[in-house]
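Just scan my protein:

. . .
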Amino acid sequence: MTNQVPCAWAPMDDPLYRAYHDEEWGVPEYDSRALWEKLQLDGMQAGLAWITILRKRETMREEFDEFDPERIARWDQRRIDKALTNPGIIRSPKKIESCIGNARAFLDGFDQGEDFSEFCWDFVDHKPILGHLKYYRDGPTKTDISEACSKALKKRGHKFVGPTIVYAWMQACGLYNDHEVDCPRFKQVQELAR
């Protein structure tokens, strides 16, 4: 029998991190728009701590039109300039421009009959990969699957989707169940898979 100890990466004394770990991280996500939003947030995180994104996430949702790809795809320079004045978001022109381009790539795929959720889950044969990690630091930073997904996303025109970003996103969205095996969430999120 194992001791039920939550993953070590989410500090016990940080309520925001704990809530993210305990309620959201690793839960299989099947909604195309939600998957796309989370991919944008992981791209925004590049070079920053994830807690920064968690602290700014609600403001970013407001500024980025609830991460509605159809609305973001229409952003022009004036709309970008407005966003850049908001201290509650990641104010990187390159990351904002990539989000706009990613919205257009998402919509291009949709126009060609591609379901983004199906596209994403195809990489793991529609079943979460179980990491079986004893300690999160023993896990990889990327995998062959995240590299293949990254390459496919880039081919479709997405930016800020390197294999490390894609792997972190796949973990967050439950395509990989990388909760530590002694964490109670390991089994809980496993049972949430379709």
